[in-house]
Each structure stands twice: as C-alpha cells, then as structure tokens.
From TrEMBL:
Record-given protein name: Peptide/nickel transport system permease protein
UniProt key word Translocase: no
GO biological process assignments: transmembrane transport
Location(s) in or outside the cell: Cell membrane
InterPro entries: BP-dependent_transpt_permease (IPR050366), MetI-like (IPR000515), MetI-like_sf (IPR035906), OppC_N (IPR025966)
Domain ABC transmembrane type-1: from-to ranges: 97-297
Record bears the keyword Hydrolase: no
Segments passing through the bilayer: 29-49, 101-126, 132-156, 168-186, 228-253, 279-300
PANTHER family assigned: ABC TRANSPORTER PERMEASE PROTEIN, OLIGOPEPTIDE TRANSPORT SYSTEM PERMEASE PROTEIN APPC
Recorded superkingdom: Bacteria
Amino acid sequence: MNPERSPNLIMRLLDSDAGYKFRSSPVTVVAGLVFVLMIGAALLAPVIAPFDPFDKGSIDLMNSLLPPAWNSGGDPAFLLGTDNQGRDLFSTILYGTRTSVFVGAVSVSLAVVAGLFLGLLAGYFGGLVDAIIMRIVDIQMTFPAIMVALLIDGVTRSFLSRDQHDELAVFVIILAMALSIWPQVARTVRASAMVEKSREYVMAAQVIGRGPWLIMARHILPNVMGPVLVIATINLGVAILGEATLSFLGLGIPAGEPSLGTLIRIGNDFIFSGERWMLIYPGLTLALLVLSVNLLGDWLRDVLDPKSR
C-alpha cells in the first residue's frame, strides 16, 4: 500500500479545475465551510446537543419561553432560550436540521434514481417509450409540490389514524418532494442520452453486440451524470425549503418531532408576544443552510458546464 496515494489524490483534487474554482471564490469557500459545519452539527446532534428534545421526561414546562442566555431573564443552561414546550431551542435546532437534511437528501436521491432510469429509457429507446415518459413528465410538472403533498396527505389521512399518519409524515413529505423533482432530472437525462447515443463509442458497443441495458449503464450513464449532480445539489436546497414550507403549513413534520419548518411555525405563533427568538434562530438556520447549498450548486454548475469555461 502506497502511503503517498492519499496526499497525492488530495493534491490532484486541489490542483484540478474544480479545486481551483473552489479556492479562487471566497464566497464558495465560506459556503462550503458553513455547509460542512451545519451538516456535521446536525449529524452529531446526539453528542453536541445539551438536551434531547425527544426525551419528554427531561422537559419541564416551567422552563418554557425563556429568552436566550445573554438576555435578561435567560438561563445559561439554555443558550438560545426555550420554546413553548420548555425544550432547549439550540438542541431542537440541531435535531430539526438533521430532520430537514434527511428529508431533503432522501427525496432528492429518490428523484435522481427515478429520473435517471426513466430519462435513460426515453432518450435511448425513443419512439413510443419516449412519448409516454415525456407526457408523464409534462403532466407531473403541472402540479407543484404543495399540491402533491396535499393530495398524498389527504389520501393517507383517509386510510390511517392520526397516530399512524404522524408516524408516516416524514415519508409523505419525502414522496411529495421526490415527485416534484424527478421530472427535471428525467428531462435533463433524456436530452443528454439522445446526444450520447449517437456518439461513436455507443455505435461501436452496438456493433460488437452489447445489449441496450449494458450500454446505458456502462457507457451513457457516466456521461450524463454531470448535469444530474448539478440538479441534485440545487434541488437539495429546494427540498429542504419545501419541507420547511409544508411543515409551516401544517402538512409536514408533527410539532412533537422538531424540524426547521415546525420550529418556524411554532415561533410564528409567538412573534407578536415578544418571544421572537423562537422564530429568528430557526429561520436564520434555514436561510444559511439553503443559501450554502445553492452557492455550492452554482459552483458545481460552473465546474461541470463546458459553456462556462
């Protein structure tokens, strides 16, 4: 095993075009640091958070609506204050960020898998397959994520009890966001696949007798992943913001399970009574997270888009 392999790989990444564009943009560097810190804090929430918002035995209603520690009447044990249930706001933000990132990452992953599969089918085979898939895409793109979530939410409420519905609320949002994102991936992959299938290397693979599924998986798929990565990165912010919007409207994560959207919804109810910290800090966390993701998506687009070079 060569001990210099890892440093050389890191140096190659730093000296590459992507690494140069990343290092030459202070905004992108700051966005990357903010994103890594926020994702790391969310993943390590059980270790970093001083309190567990899911542990009802540790929650005391006498500690509800406490201001941040540096304000008059604040408690040093609660850095950013508490919410109306007496939960430590700093801890709930950490756990809420983890929930929001989980919803965004899973929904985008499902959308990318579905979009890649259907986009490759439409672009490679064309004809009737292409027509059917693209008409489904056109129909799907006419429905916004909120309408899809309302439909799925209504269907699940009619078949499930309230407790069962609350347990499946996260999966309802994931499904709604994935259904709203996959058409963009499918259309992009279809366009790229139609270009790639006319290349010489694809024709050579067809001549030597390789099947269509092997050609799509081994030859076309690696060459269409660039635009897909850009769409996935940008839509990660869209999915996180969509989860917050749906939870704010009462269609998402239940109030007992913290997410950034539910924290903002709870804080909005108390903004006129003076407890503004309940809205400001979750809202600022959501804004920083989405902004950092969007800036990284712009950087990735500049790196992978040949027209920007």
